[in-house]
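1st attempt posting a full record on here, be nice pls
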Amino acid sequence: MMIKQAQKNQNPNLPILIYDAIKDIAHTLTGEDEIDKVLSTLDMYINMDVNRLSYNNIWIYEIHNQAVGLILAYDSNDLKRLDA
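the predicted structure (as tokens):
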């Protein structure tokens, strides 16, 4: 078991974990209705270097090398830059 910084393109289940936490908000953030499209768009956001949902803002809790939980945190003073 370990808590560590998420890595780009190495977190296949993070979109599902985020979706499970925010459901309807995920549809609003992505502009998508279908779950597959929502998850795909969340994955795209997670793998961006600068974004509210970027891997740079995510710490994961791993069990057996699989993320089973996450913390998403960023400085609210950076919102304009993160949302650009």
